[in-house]
Structures are given as C-alpha cells and as structure tokens.
Amino acid sequence: MNIILIFLIIALCFFRANPKLSFKSLVAGIVALWLAATPAVADFLLNPIEDNYTAFTYPNKPIDYIVVLGCDHVEDPALPPTSQLRYCSLARLVEAVRIYQQNPSSELITSGGSYKGGTPNAEVVKNAAQSLGIPESKITTEVNAFDTYEEAQLLAPRLQGKSVVLVTSASHMPRAMAYFKRFGIDPMPAPAGNLVKNYYGDKSWTYYLPNAATLNKTTTAWYETLGRIVQWFTALVD
Q1: What does 6-40 look like in DSSP terms, one character per residue?
Q2: Cα separation of 161 and 64, whole Å?
Q3: Structural contact between residues 192 and 170, judged by C-beta atoms closer than 8 angstroms
Q4: DSSP string spanning 63-124?
Q5: Sheet-wide strand order for 164-169
Q6: Tell me: the pLDDT tens digits for 42-54?
C-alpha cells in the first residue's frame, strides 16, 4: 500500500508541473493496486513461499520441544487470551496445541517480546495455551527475543541435541528454518496459517477480480521476500 500511495502522491503533486509524469504515476498506482488486490496474482506470488514445507506429520520418535514463534496480539482485559491474539499468533498456537495433544510428553516453548512495553507476546500465547488445556508446567516462555534471528539465537542452547518441532506461519517458515539451522538446530517444520489454499483447484470467475482482503497476501509475499534478501546479506556478513 505504501508503494501505491507513493505513486498516487506523485501523481497529485505533479498534476500541474509535469502532467505526463503525473499521468504515468497515476496509471502505475492504479495498475499496482489492481494487481496487488487480485487473488490470482497474490496467490502466484505467495504460494511458492508457503509451499516450501508441507503440513506437519507425526514422526516415529518422541518430541522434546514444540517451539511457537512469536507474532502479534492486542492487549484487551475484556477479552480471553485467545481473542487477544492476532491471526498469525492464533494459527501458530492452534497448530502447536494439535501437535502437543499427540505428544503430551513434549514441552511447549512460546517466544516473543513486547515492542510497546506491554505484556510480551510469549506470555499472551502461554496464557492462551493454558486456556486450551496445556498445563502451565509444560510451557516455557522466551520474552527477550524481538525478531526471528534473536529467537533462534536465544533458544539454540536449550534445543541442542533435542527433538524439536518449529511452529510458525507457512509464509515465515523458510526464513525461520534458515535462522535455526544457522545456529545448529534442525527442527521439524510445522507450518501454520496458510493464506493460500487449494491453489491448484478449480477457481470461480471472482478469483480474477480484485478485493481488499487479498492485499494482505500480496503484502505478506513482499515482506517475506524482502526478509529473505536481508537474511542473505546478513549471512554474508556473519
């Protein structure tokens, strides 16, 4: 949306000074908005990212830790913890609970700090997990990590030599796996919250028309692509 707004602002600012530039910028903004809001385009961009890892299947060995990476929440005492979680955190938690129910001997690790000085995301996810039936004694929190790199770095010493399942959003999983492998951990991926569903199935004509909800998919694809580029550059430095 920021890129589209830049095109539209340029079109407005140069309406009189440079009509040709203004017109081209207006057209670019409209085309960018149309493409970004079209499900067929958004799925084409996001599916290759989410499709790196398949849904988690239970291994023939015990699981020591189920690591749930942090995402986001909104603190509202009037709501239960599960309703305070944004979609990304809730989807990750639900997948973690599903895996835990089949592996009750495992331990849950929730991670994620607080950028705004409130309750860390790891604590809210922990409270939500307890409300879904996971005992408090089975949950450990890591509240000092503020991004995926720090989560992998801080959790690595505890996870060395252990059987680990990593739960995060399907779009975020390639970047998360790369960070954990950088610190010597090779977890089993458990992607959650897939935004692209039934990609190869039959589509109705509305699939090729723009809608506002699709902008989230395009933004996610753009964000994760930039994240992988940054990850690649930082790996060169390290």
Answers
A1: HHHHHHHHTTTT-HHHHHHHHHHHHHHHHHHT-HH
A2: 10
A3: yes
A4: --EEEE----B---TTS-HHHHB-HHHHHHHHHHHHHHHH-TTSEEEEE---SSSSS-HHHH
A5: 139-142, 107-111, 65-68, 164-169, 188-192
A6: 999 999 999 999 9
Burial (0-12, 13-18, 19+ Cβ within 10 Å), 138: middle
179/235 Cα distance (integer angstroms) = 9
Is there a contact between 185 and 157 (Cβ–Cβ < 8 Å)? no
Separation between Cα atoms, residue 121 and residue 116, nearest integer Å: 11
Residue 217 CA neighbour count, 13 Å, CB half: 26
Output the six-digit token pair for 88.
């990304």
Instruction: Extract the tokens encoding 48.
Output: 């290759």
Q: Cα(55)–Cα(66) distance, rounded to whole angstroms?
A: 15
Measure the CA–CA gap between 19 and 33, rounded to whole angstroms. Answer: 21
pLDDT at 61: 86
Q: Which secondary structure element, helix H or strand E, spans residue 234, and what is its range?
A: helix 215-237
The pLDDT confidence band at residue 58, using thresholds 50, 70 and 90, is: confident
